[in-house]
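Re: Re: ligand-bound prediction request (bumping)

Still looking for help on this. To restate: I need the protein modeled with pyridoxal-5'-phosphate bound, output as structure tokens. Inputs repeated here so nobody has to scroll up.
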Amino acid sequence: MKYYDKLIFELSREGRKGYELPANKIGGNSLNSIPTELRRCKAAELPEVSELEVVRHYTNLSTKNFGVDTGFYPLGSCTMKYNPKINEEVALMPQFAGIHPLQSADTVQGALEVYYNLQQALASIAGLEEFTLNPYAGAHGELTGLMVMRTYHESRGEHKRTKVIVPNSAHGTNPASAMVAGLEVVEVKSKPNGSIDVEDLKPLLNDEIAGIMMTNPNTLGMFETEIMEIAKLVHDAGGLLYYDGANLNPLLGKVRPGDMGFDIMHINLHKTFSTPHGGGGPGSGPVGVNKDLVEFLPNPRVRKDADGKFYVDFGKDSLGSISTFLGNFGVMLKAYAYILTLGKENIKNVGPMATLNANYIKESLKDDYLLPIDGVCKHEFVFDGIKDKSTGVTTLNIAKRLLDYGFHAPTIYFPLLFHESMMIEPTETESIETLDEFIEVMHKVAKEARETPDVVKNAPLTTLVRKLDETTAAKHPVLTYKAMLNND
Ligand SMILES: *Cc1c(COP(=O)(O)O)cnc(C)c1O
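Reply:
Sorry for the wait, this slipped through. Here it is.
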């Protein structure tokens, strides 16, 4: 432990403080009003610091992180788009932030109306009958949707249907959610362009199949052109189609999963509808279903009666509850604000802009980076590392070098279909100037890889911390500076 490290970490000085507690309004000695068994035996180990030190500490920390508000963040599949600040303002309005989930419906009609309207908006965007907003994340939505699938088959006495087909290119949460839902995963192969191999699918379809999980455009950003045939095959076999709509950007306002034959889907509000994410949330993964599945959706739901009053409903055939109360309301408010800001007219531009931006980068860089699947992509695409493999420069090296130039890395080593995957998603909210800067830097890095490969291999050179030992960080995390001092 160097003196310098101590200097920045240890700010506490005995007796220093930055607060003043209000006088006890209950009367008497406040300590005496707390039962003995509930009192601390030892003082809490809290830092003793002044307000200015707290402000500097957190302000400094905030500048040491990379965020979508500080730079371009082309993290494929994560959809790191701009989070408009008006969304935050809406979510912070005391009329929303100050209410309690146990308040009677009469006193929160406005909040329930927003909730209801968002359910309706998502249903019309998706082409499905009804949405639950209860799930907290995309993976939680997958689990909920698969539970709907199971409950549906069980309600028909089809207890044998316990297998779910998942393509080998799927997002890792798909097979994981299927396992958690008590379903068995059956893998279907992808063709070289990442789309489902229909010939490989056919023999898998039988009376044990509960359904299939897909995303379209698929993980490689390619549209599954055979989707109507796939839907017919799966439905004819008695199965249901689940759509992973975490990233619905490419389709927004253009194509609806319900029209493609999907029965169940989730949408990540914290990707598609611009609510902030990363670092563990909070997120929201609403699940939509077709009209035959509505009764199985989780409780509680928000409904509107004939007089236009909103109420919280508990369906008797529901699969049960999957969250506390009605889910992450703050996230819903931000997503709803985003949808209203765009409106019906502009939401149609999201998909085309996201698609144009992705293709612009792809075409501009394919002379330096290996493009395994040529053709028009949707909102994202995958390079298989740098084209000139003789440089010995890996995708990891390039990802780290980008940090030196002020760009976040793309998603790397996913999907698993290629050795050096680099998944790029610019989103619709970036300007042409930003895209051009990124393209220029990517060309520059490729040139460095050819001319001075060691520079790229040793990157990052300018960040606060250099390349981390990610395995040790994951296996032996040091989460407080005190733990670090004690290790020393
Ligand atoms: C992000 C993502 C998920 C999982 O969403 P979480 O909110 O992180 O649980 C699922 N599928 C796809 C395609 C995704 O991009």
